[in-house]
Amino acid sequence: MQALIEVILPVFLVIGFGYVAVWRRWFSQAGVDGLMAFTQKFAIPCLLFTAISRLDLGQSFDWRLLSSFYIGALSGFLLGFFGARYLFGRTWEDAVAIGFCCLFSNSVLLGLPIMERAYGAASMTANFAIISMHSPFCYGIGITTMEVVKARGAAGPAVVVKVLKAMFSNTLIMGVALGFAVNLSGVALPGPVNDALDLMVRAALPAALFGLGGVLVQYRPEGDLRVIFYVCAVALVAHPLITFGLGRAFDLSEASMRSAVVTGAMAPGVNAYIFANIYGHAKRVAASSVLLSTALTIVTAWIWLQVLP
Question: What span, in angstroms and rounded, lies between the C-alpha atoms of 131 and 108?
Fold first, then answer.
């Protein structure tokens, strides 16, 4: 219970403050849009850039860590994809969007603050290793599958172009890529630049959590409840459970196990709705799943913190 009160509730109280502020019209929706643009296009890319540029790449990129997390994530996508099609009779396009909801855990806005509060800032090294591949992996799977489904198996090189364009127009991926460039080159950034980046980093997570609360006001849990609860079960239970089992099988270190499971146990991010909205499929399911699973994470994250060593 202490973990629930001291670790998880503060994170969700900030989200709740953002939700109430926008719901009561104390903070405008336009303000939320601006805040999220600041965090997602500037502050969080700075966070990812500084974290990746300072990582010990040889120690951080452990194949056992990445395999445990990403096999769990891919399993979540397949459960969502085939479950939507064969259990609920959705179209193939809807099934891809629903699978994407089960694939894309909120690794940054929820995973990082909960991990930091639970285990300290020094514990997040493995989180950043996972996050460095998260968007390319998830968008690569989601966009490729959707384009192949839309083309009914006849997709060609245009799919590759669409995937690469979508990934490398993403500022989060650009922040990660620049971080790798600095890390591998051994270039030392000037002190004032590092100090400025650290100022941006300190603003990133609190502002993003508040903005996430404001974004969630737009979503309403409605219709397709069986599918929505199925998405929540896959995202909050199946993905972290598979990751936990693989971590045990691979003899993953205690620190890496925590990072992999906590990240895998997070609710689908807002990107799940953005993906569904771009393609115009399963938008109600995606929006409602993001809202409901984010609320449920208060309980499920606490349970996972009790399970972890």
Answer: 7
Helices (H), 83-224: 92-103, 112-119, 125-150, 157-168, 171-185, 191-216
Q: What is the pLDDT of residues 183-206, one digit of tens each?
A: 888 888 888 888 898 898 888 888
77, 100 contact by CB (below 8 A): yes
Number of H helices, E strands in the chain: 17, 0
Instruction: Say which residue the tokens 């950043």 belong to.
Output: 128
Query: 218-266: per-residue pLDDT in tens?
Result: 776 666 889 999 999 999 999 999 999 999 999 999 999 999 999 999 9
Structure tokens at 111: 């995973």
Model pTM?
A: 0.81
Instruction: Give the tokens for residue 109.
Output: 């806005």
Task: Tell me how far the alpha carbon of residue 154 is from its chain's centroid.
Answer: 31
